[in-house]
Design goal:
It is a single chain. The protein is an alpha+beta fold. The chain contains 8 helices and 12 strands. The longest helix is centred in the C-terminal third of the chain and has 20 residues.
Length: about 280
């Protein structure tokens, strides 16, 4: 039986691992998380149409290439039920996204300082998807490991956010305690980057208010800036007008257009808890 035909087999065995998302606390429906190992769910790499980079990837930056093949993303369905895992490489190929509807879990961090300014980053020019675009503080994926699969109160995603803030921006864990992140909501979106790469993510939106020391990793980040509300509005206008070659990431723009300004009100008032809605998955 071919790898492609294996991919189309029904995932009947996974029903026992269905995740209940009927409240803001998530849990495995039949077994506690402590009893579930990452080995429990299938590795979809064997099912993927592209398991190795082709010759066109020869020029890929060494750091990004390593991450594309070593990082294992969490595959989910549109209800955020875990289905298995696959490489970051396979999850971001548009051919897999379009033909096999591969969807993976992600997060977007919005970090504000004590002046309620939002930290933005410009993605490195070596990034495989959306190089040199401006976006929110940090955008990445929880990996298929026990500490980042924890469903309860989105703890796995918050653990991943703390890890990536250090990797990308040099922000130490002590400056961004896991308990300080507020998971406000989830959105599902699809966005092509170019003809080959793209995103199809179920994205957790995490807010945090902390004064931090930032030391950007040049392999991940080209530039950073803090912006006020008005400065962000000007940035959006410039991007819309195509001024200065400025571009915003599609996921950041979706948050700006749909949620950010009303949530910014809660940041300033100290009432973020009132904005939490983890029951809804916004399909944008």
């Amino acid at each position: 039986m071919s790898a492609s035909s294996l991919f189309n087999l029904p995932l009947i065995r996974l029903r026992s691992l269905a995740i209940s998302s009927s409240s803001s606390s998530f849990r495995f429906a039949h077994r506690p998380l402590s009893s579930i190992s990452p080995r429990t769910l299938p590795n979809f790499r064997a099912f993927s149409g592209t398991a190795m980079a082709d010759t066109k990837d020869a020029g890929m930056d060494a750091v990004q290439r390593r991450l594309m093949f070593e990082d294992e993303c969490i595959l989910v369905d549109e209800t955020d039920r875990v289905l298995g895992h696959d490489s970051k490489y396979n999850c971001h190929l548009m051919e897999n996204i379009e033909a096999k509807n591969l969807l993976h879990r992600a997060f977007s961090v919005f970090l504000f300082n004590s002046k309620y300014e939002l930290l933005l980053q410009q993605r490195s020019n070596t990034k495989v998807t959306f190089p040199l675009v401006w976006t929110n503080t940090c955008c990445s994926h929880p990996l298929y490991r026990e500490s980042e699969l924890i469903q309860e109160n989105a703890l796995g995603v918050r653990n991943a956010a703390q890890r990536k803030l250090l990797d990308e921006l040099g922000i130490v864990a002590e400056d961004v305690p896991v308990d300080e992140f507020t998971a406000l909501g989830r959105m599902l979106y699809k966005a092509p980057s170019d003809g080959k790469w793209g995103e199809h993510e179920l994205d957790y939106l995490l807010f945090i208010v902390r004064d931090v020391k930032v030391q950007p990793n040049p392999d991940e980040v080209a530039d950073i800036k803090y912006v006020s509300r008005e400065e962000l509005k000007e940035l959006v206008k410039k991007a819309d007008a195509g001024e200065e070659g400025l571009k915003l990431s599609p996921w950041f723009r979706l948050v700006v257009d749909n949620f950010l300004m009303k949530w910014w009100d809660h940041v300033e008032k100290g009432t973020l808890g009132e904005a939490i809605d983890m029951k809804t998955i916004h399909k944008l």
